[in-house]
Amino acid sequence: MAVSQSGVRFGTHRVVDPPGSLPQAARVVDNSLPIHPTEILVDVEMLNVDSASFAQMREASGHDPAGVEALILETVAQRGKQHNPVTGSGGMLTGVVREVGPEYRGCVDAVAGDRIATLVSLSLTPLKLEKVKKVHMDRDQVEVEGHAILFESGVAVKMPDDFSREAALAILDVAGAPAQAFRLVKPGMDVGIIGTGKSGLLCCAVARRVLGDKGRVFGVDRQSESLDLMMDMGYVDVPVLADATDPVAVYEAVHRATDGNLLDVVMNTTNVPGTEMSTVMAARDLGTAYSFNMATSFTAAALGAEGIGKDVTMLIGNGYLKDHTRISLDFVRSDSRLMAYFEDKYGD
Ligand code: NAP
Q: Are residues 182 and 119 in the same domain?
């Protein structure tokens, strides 16, 4: 195969359709063996499907694990990767390295036999599935048999040995969000986290620690159970019960809770479409609205903010931040309540 060095590095040599696109944007990638000399071959054990994608498949299949399995097998067979055609998102995987190509010069420090987790999206990772063994409907994880291929530009880490595989995957999947919370939150701020699932919990906990006794954490969710849990764990100061798909309701509730000041930083970690304007409207003028939710529409956020004359800094939640896995795992390690939460909820 005659390919340029940069083509090999970013995986464009595996793009089937449309030619010239990057693997993430591609409709179809080539998942065939053998690997190219600059690639890594992984025997896949588990997919951690991103929450927006899993929620969409759960709904589409009527909450039936067999239906989710069928959707995953169909997507991977058609596209050569787990790139949800509706949400456009993926997730990540864990498995055991079978082979490192002799010309591989990427950043993954692993040899054959190492168990790793990929930190690049399944939406761009060539994947071939032999079998789906079990769909875990309660934690967005799917046990599988198959192989995946990593490019030189791909990021992956060895699985930590002080977490269960399932808990580590759950944390690593959303590692970008708590790492970003460390950057955005400053003492004295009022910070809002919309959606208090796993990334939301981590962001609340980071915000609470950074703020100390200066500033407040507002948790916004449509269910009181998760807000009660965050309050009990001490990560949320002010619970706000509101549906993020109803931006006016969120705005009014946050307006009341902040005596009209609104929030300095709003982080949206929900997993459903139609929540953009809740993020924008809950932020004060010149505040920051961060969207980690994969079901976020750039158009809805940008035109919606313009439409209400709101000047906020809008950030897209990049899944990769420098050192994000170390930051997130170390943060969880430093808090026994978080460690227990992830092991209880996700560990087998
Ligand atoms: P999660 O654990 O499923 O949490 C989502 C939370 O949002 C849940 O607490 C959920 O509550 C809440 N929620 C859903 N709809 C809501 C609504 N209408 N109003 C208020 N709250 C609502 O998800 P996660 O794993 O933390 O992931 C969060 C998002 O990040 C997902 O969209 C995921 O795809 C995305 N993600 C992004 C990246 C990236 O690189 N940017 C990487 C990984 C994941 P219920 O329990 O009531 O449903």
A: no
Q: Whose CA is nearest to atom 9 of ligand 1?
A: 197
* Phi/psi at 14 (5° precision): -100, 0
Tally of structural domains, the chain: 2
Question: What is this structure's pTM?
Answer: 0.94
Which pair of structure tokens corresponds to residue 144? 């599988």
Last residue of a domain, one of 128, 159, 190: 159
Q: What is the whole-number distance in angstroms between the Cα of residue 198 and the centre of ligand 1?
A: 8
Whole domain around residue 209: which residue ranges? 176-340
Ligand 1 pocket test, pick from 198, 269, 298 with the greatest ligand atom count within 8 Å of Cβ, gives: 269
The residues, any chain, with a CB within 8 Å of residue 270's CB and separated by 6 or more, are 194, 195, 197, 200, 244, 293, 295
Span 272-311, pLDDT tens digits = 999 999 999 999 999 999 999 999 999 999 999 999 999 9
Mutate to test the pocket of ligand 1, among 270, 277, 298, 320 (most ligand atoms within 8 A of CB): 270
